[in-house]
Amino acid sequence: MKVKSLMYGLIVGGIVAGAGSLLSAPSSGKELRGKLKDKQNDWKLTLEDLKERANELKESIGTLSQESKETVLQLSKDLQASIKEWQISTAPNNERLQKEIETVRQTIEDLEKSIDLPGSSQSK
User: Which parts of the chain span the membrane according to its record (predicted)?
Assistant: First the structure.
């Protein structure tokens, strides 16, 4: 929407500036009409060129948007697959670590029980 507004602003500004400069130039009515007709063709060609370029820009943006969307979608799928592979590859290590943690916890509990002898300062 901003590009469209900018294009319209440039076109209208150019037309107003061109008309203002032609009308303020010291020349006869006949010369002025001749200049206006000459410039009219130039402006038509310029406007057609601008319109064509705007359409090309719009198509390019649409294509880029679609390609970006497809790339992001593919990247997302690849990332999900990589995460699943990582989870599968680390599952055995996770299980082993859980067993070791449980063993360490049990050992700590056993040590606490053996240290907690009757007559010790902690049991009072």
Answer: 6-25
